[in-house]
Amino acid sequence: MDNYLKRLRAEQGWSQADLAEKLDVSRQTVIALERGRYDPSLKLAFRLSKVFGLPIEQLFEPDEG
């Protein structure tokens, strides 16, 4: 699954550590999310949506195929 988390985080001026703190996860989790190596749980996806103030559909894009 592709995502726009790195771009959105940068637009807010947040470091990976800042975002991790806001989400109550580790920085390593943020890194894995941004690199597409980890698909978030539904609970984490909703937290991301709330933190960025965007619907989940604007944060993630499913892989084609």
UniProtKB/TrEMBL annotation:
<dbReference type="InterPro" id="IPR010982">
    <property type="entry name" value="Lambda_DNA-bd_dom_sf"/>
</dbReference>
<feature type="domain" description="HTH cro/C1-type">
    <location>
        <begin position="5"/>
        <end position="59"/>
    </location>
</feature>
<dbReference type="Pfam" id="PF01381">
    <property type="entry name" value="HTH_3"/>
</dbReference>
<dbReference type="InterPro" id="IPR001387">
    <property type="entry name" value="Cro/C1-type_HTH"/>
</dbReference>
<protein>
    <submittedName>
        <fullName>Helix-turn-helix transcriptional regulator</fullName>
    </submittedName>
</protein>
<keyword id="KW-0238">DNA-binding</keyword>
